[in-house]
Specification:
51% helix; alpha+beta; 235 residues; 17% strand; 5-stranded mixed sheet
Length: 235
């Protein structure tokens, strides 16, 4: 009887998913459905709860390393690989959105490019994109990863990359994983300093974005930046 009950429950979950009604289901239910496919011959409801309790959220589960996942009782190597692949595929698909982009010619396009680059990152990262006069992308650099704030970024490396590529324009961006798209005081101070240093080299810093999930805040965008921070009075 237990076997029939479990199979009936799984079938109901699959029907919920197929008819679209699982969109409002709790996270543990959707994780249970996935686990029931990965581990077809066991009751996985308790395991779904244990995983979310261990890692705090669905994103925490999927972004955890296989080694960390296997520390949860009931998670073997195959299950750990299957769960971590979800985030791997998600990250790959997001990055692929930029693979055909060869030019950045508007603020909106640059913002979307940086969101695609950073939204799936689970650690803080700071990137630099160098452009030619026509907006074509010369090269993208990851300047730093880990615990990143403006004071940790190696400004001289950004300058060196820009000069090496003979860049006309530079775009920089960093992310706030699990945070909000809002610049800190140190972000603003760093941006002003970088703007000045690049200007001394004849290179324009046109954008600095702070990315959080699908959102982004603009610290600088051309003349709007100068006006917002009254740089005309201090440069």
């Amino acid at each position: 009887m237990a076997e029939l009950s479990r199979n009936g429950h799984r079938q109901r979950m699959r029907k919920q998913y197929l008819n679209g009604s699982m969109k409002s289901s709790p996270d543990h239910n959707t994780l249970e459905l996935l686990l029931s496919i990965i581990i077809p011959r066991h009751d996985v409801k308790d395991l779904a709860y244990d995983l979310i309790n261990a890692f705090g959220s669905l994103e925490g589960v999927f972004s955890a390393s296989p080694d960390d996942l296997m520390k949860v009782k009931g998670v073997g190597e195959s299950t750990a690989v299957a769960l971590s692949l979800v985030y791997f595929f998600h990250d790959r698909m997001i990055a692929d959105r930029n693979k055909d982009t060869v030019k950045l010619t508007s603020n909106e396009q640059a913002m979307n490019y940086c969101i695609n680059e950073l939204r799936a990152k689970t650690v803080e990262s700071f990137i630099q994109i160098n452009l030619r006069n026509d907006g074509s992308i010369i090269k993208k650099y990851v300047i730093s990863t880990g615990r990143v704030n403006a004071t940790d970024v190696n400004k001289s490396l950004v300058l060196t990359n820009a000069v090496k590529d003979s860049a006309a324009y530079v775009i920089v961006a960093h992310n706030h994983p699990h945070g909000i798209a809002q610049a800190s005081a140190s972000d603003i101070d760093f941006t002003i300093s970088l703007y000045r240093s690049l200007s001394d080299l004849g290179i324009k810093l046109v954008d600095h974005f702070v990315v959080a999930d699908n959102d982004a805040a603009v610290i600088i965008h051309s003349k709007e930046f100068e006006k917002s921070f009254n740089l005309s009075e201090v440069l």
